[in-house]
Each structure stands twice: as structure tokens, then as C-alpha cells.
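tmp note - C2H2-type domain-containing protein
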Amino acid sequence: MSKKEVTCKYCGRRLVGGRALKDHIKAKHKPQYLLMTVVPYLVIVLVIAFASAAFLPQYLEDLRNRNTATEVNVNPEDILNRFLTPTDRLIKHIHVFLSIRVDNQEITIPPGIGIVGGREKYMHTHDDSGIIHIETPIDYPFTLGDFFKVWDKRFDENCVGEYCGNVTVIVNGQNIETPWNYVLENQDNITIEVDTGK
Ligand SMILES: [Zn+2]
Ligand SMILES: [Zn+2]
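out:
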């Protein structure tokens, strides 16, 4: 391959080949040569610095979340019995509306379920409105059955608490077959009906 004739863009001198041009610039145009060789590295270093500044906090956050997410492998009963601490960072705070009707009579869901001595478990009630609060620092699929575990009430195909009979569970207008396994979603509207046959 024959060497191409090139022109120095700083002084207009004609040279043969890229190598000769580079040597010429190095010898005759020192500041431009430095700019040419150093600036690309500087740009790379700056880009890396900016990228780190922008993404490092998010990366560390993700790492921390991954650590808490692995806690899903721990015993579920343990998660249900844990209390929130002031240092917990909530990754989820959702509300579910629960209504329990026994023979068409509304049963009051008491306030303070999952609250002991002012300390809140991840699932709890604040008042008797039937709103279940799920405030959790870990990513865990809390179910309707979990709420009854926190409440310490029976919930299966035959009984809800002390009320036994034909149990029907409607979630957002749909009948649910195995409601104890239903994973609660924000703003779910849940009605549990017990027909005791009396
Ligand atoms: Zn809440
Ligand atoms: Zn709360």
C-alpha cells in the first residue's frame, strides 16, 4: 500500500504518511500534539467519572436491595412476625380493603392487628376500617392467608376465625378458589363471606 500524501492542518505543510504527519506535529506543534494525544484519554476519564457519580449510588442501592430480596428464602413465619424498625427503608407501602361478612352481617376487623406495644409488623391495621397496611422493607409476596396468620385467626375453606360454614372470597369482583394463597396487591377490594347455614 503506497503512503498517502497528507497536509498538516496547522501549517499547511505536505507530508507523506500518517506517521510522518504525527512526527511533524509532535516536533513543530507541541501544544496541538499534546491536545491530540491527551484529550481523548481525558474525555474517557471524565466520562467514567461522571458515569460513576451518576450510577454508583443506584448500583449500591440495587446491591443492598438484592441483599434484602434474598431474605425471601427465610422462614415466612419469621417475616410475618418481624417488626419494622426506624432504620428500615420501606420498598412497599400498600393498602388492601378487607370486608368480612358472616350471614350478611359485617364483622369488625379490629385496629392494631400486627401492632404490639406500638411496634408494627409488616402487615397491620391502624383502625377498624378494614384497611390492611403492608409496609415492608423486603420484597415478599404477602398473601391474604398471611394476614390471618398475623391476626392469629383461622382461615381456610371451612372457617374464618370462629365462624364456620360455606366460605366465599371475592377479590375485585372475582371469586377466588384458594384465597389463602392470594398475593395482595395495592387497592385490592376483598370480601370474605361466611354462610353458617343458620
Ligand atoms: Zn398504610
Ligand atoms: Zn402503618
